[in-house]
Amino acid sequence: MMRLPLFQYRSPQTLGEAAVMLNSEGPEARILAGGTDLLPNMKRRQQTPSILIGLRGIRELKEASPREENAWSLGACLTLSDIVHNPRIRERFGALWRAASLIATPLIQNMGTLGGNLCLDTRCNYYNQNYEWRKAIDFCLKKDGNMCWVATGSSRCLAVSSTDTAPALIALGARVRLVSHNGERVVPLSAFYRNDGIEHLARRNDEILAEVLLDSQEGWRSTYWKLRRRGSFDFPVLSVAAAAKISGGVVEEARLVLGSLSSCPLKASEAESFLSGRPLDDDVIREAAALASRIGKPLDNTDFNMTWRKKVCREFVINALRELRGEELPDRCK
Question: Cys bridge to 224: 58, 95, 97, 141, which one at CB 3.0-4.6 A?
Answer without folding.
Answer: 95
